[in-house]
């Protein structure tokens, strides 16, 4: 069965930015880090000139070759071969195109527990917390949230306390990301009715953690203050030995790190991928990513736009409808522009009439968190043929779209999938979908 790609209307979220910022250089613009005289490259370089959690932005890049296409099975009888050392670099990519293929950015290999887009979204966020002497982080997620586990591990590595509000009931057996969260962080299970009001839930718990002698502070305030400080050549205006801080400084990180500061780490990845020895600046690229909160996709789109790259970002919607993702894109871009206070960024966005991301439905839509019969076996087949481990909720959706685009791609555009990690979630799925995972005992079915 051929995958059906349903393109949805491109959004117009940039209009909000235009209304707020196209009045020219604001009175406070002189205090910003950036000015209208910078080139796009200089702007991005200054934007990304900061402390990072990841020592380097690099990621392994593999090429997945597609062959033996026949009808049959859930996704057709398609086989894969992984070229782990493809020839990259501007002008050399075409040498790999003997067969239909796509490239995969192996962000799943960044860290044993904090990998994929989780690591990218925390890349700029974690140093910001440390620079402001934060003591506690409050965040939330599902029972098997890879984001919550990533926050727990990252905070523990830096001596911070994490408080994880997980939706639903405590499972009988802790496993997967739920186990990691419990080992590294302070887990509290929240009734689904209470979790539905996330903002209130997070704020209330943060206040309780702070207590009477502590304070709850905002990530957006930190980000805006950072740009203001750098305008005066200072990385941090606070001196730990001279300033008295409250007993606890608590920060709320949104579900899935859906905060504007999370865009910076993804933009750093885009800058790396656009280097001449990787994909370069001239090659037309179609980047495919699965989307939970949509933050990663917006970061990719914003990075490509700011660098002037001929790249198209296609995001597979998994957790919401098109209107929800449009609103998320609008909010993230608006917050990012407000924090940067950059006339150049305003001018760049002013030339865009539509959004920076193409949002598309999954080939076989379903309620978020559900998997279909045959998808676990599809992940097994891909793992055995390529060594790439996927999960049926997130990364398999991106893989299937990348496969289709890789087969249909025109000669002047290459397809690149960003592996967003999250594979420990398979342990939780094995508890929920026992019958599907029992099918793995017999090996890969011949019809796959």
From TrEMBL:
<dbReference type="InterPro" id="IPR027278">
    <property type="entry name" value="ACCD_DCysDesulf"/>
</dbReference>
<protein>
    <submittedName>
        <fullName>D-cysteine desulfhydrase 2</fullName>
    </submittedName>
</protein>
<keyword id="KW-0663">Pyridoxal phosphate</keyword>
<dbReference type="InterPro" id="IPR036052">
    <property type="entry name" value="TrpB-like_PALP_sf"/>
</dbReference>
<dbReference type="GO" id="GO:0016829">
    <property type="term" value="F:lyase activity"/>
</dbReference>
<comment type="similarity">
    <text>Belongs to the ACC deaminase/D-cysteine desulfhydrase family.</text>
</comment>
């Amino acid at each position: 069965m051929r995958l059906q790609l349903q393109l949805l209307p491109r959004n117009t979220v940039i209009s909000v930015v235009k209304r707020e910022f196209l009045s020219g250089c604001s009175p406070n613009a002189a205090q910003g880090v950036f000015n209208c005289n910078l080139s796009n490259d200089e702007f991005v370089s200054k934007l990304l000139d900061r402390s990072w959690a990841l020592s380097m932005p690099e990621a392994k890049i593999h090429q997945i070759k597609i062959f033996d296409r026949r009808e049959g099975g859930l996704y057709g009888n398609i086989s894969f071969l992984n070229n782990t050392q493809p020839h990259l670099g501007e002008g050399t990519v075409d040498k790999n195109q003997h067969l239909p293929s796509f490239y995969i950015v192996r962000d799943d290999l960044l860290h044993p527990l904090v990998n994929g887009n989780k690591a990218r979204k925390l890349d700029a966020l974690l140093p910001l917390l440390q620079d402001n002497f934060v003591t506690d982080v409050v965040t939330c997620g599902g029972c098997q949230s890879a984001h919550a586990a990533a926050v727990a591990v990252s905070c523990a590595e830096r001596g911070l306390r994490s408080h994880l509000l997980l939706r639903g009931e405590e499972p009988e057996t802790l496993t997967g990301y739920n186990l990691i969260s419990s080992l590294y962080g302070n887990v509290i299970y929240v009734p689904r009715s209470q979790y539905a009001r996330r903002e209130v839930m997070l704020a209330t718990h943060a206040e309780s953690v702070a207590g009477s002698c502590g304070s709850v502070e905002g990530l957006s305030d930190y980000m805006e203050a950072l740009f203001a400080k750098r305008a005066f050549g200072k990385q941090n205006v606070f001196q730990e030995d001279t300033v008295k801080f409250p007993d606890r400084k608590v920060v709320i990180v949104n579900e899935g790190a859906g905060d504007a500061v999370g865009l910076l780490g993804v933009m750093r990845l885009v800058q790396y991928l656009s280097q001449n020895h990787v994909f370069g600046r001239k090659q037309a690229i179609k980047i495919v990513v699965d989307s939970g909160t949509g933050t990663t996709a917006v970061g990719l789109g914003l990075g490509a736009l700011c660098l002037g790259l001929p790249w198209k970002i296609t995001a597979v919607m998994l957790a919401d409808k098109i209107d929800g993702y449009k609103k998320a894109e609008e909010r993230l871009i608006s917050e990012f522009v407000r924090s940067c206070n950059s006339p150049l960024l305003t001018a760049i966005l002013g030339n865009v009439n539509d959004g920076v991301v193409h949002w598309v439905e999954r080939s076989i839509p379903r309620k978020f968190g559900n998997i279909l019969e045959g998808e676990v076996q599809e992940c097994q087949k891909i793992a055995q043929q390529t060594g790439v481990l996927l999960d049926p909720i997130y990364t398999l959706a991106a893989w299937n779209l990348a496969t289709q685009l890789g087969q249909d791609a025109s000669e002047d555009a290459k397809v690149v999938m960003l592996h967003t990690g999250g594979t420990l979630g398979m342990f939780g799925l094995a508890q929920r979908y026992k019958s599907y995972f029992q099918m793995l005992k017999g090996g890969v079915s011949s019809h796959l």
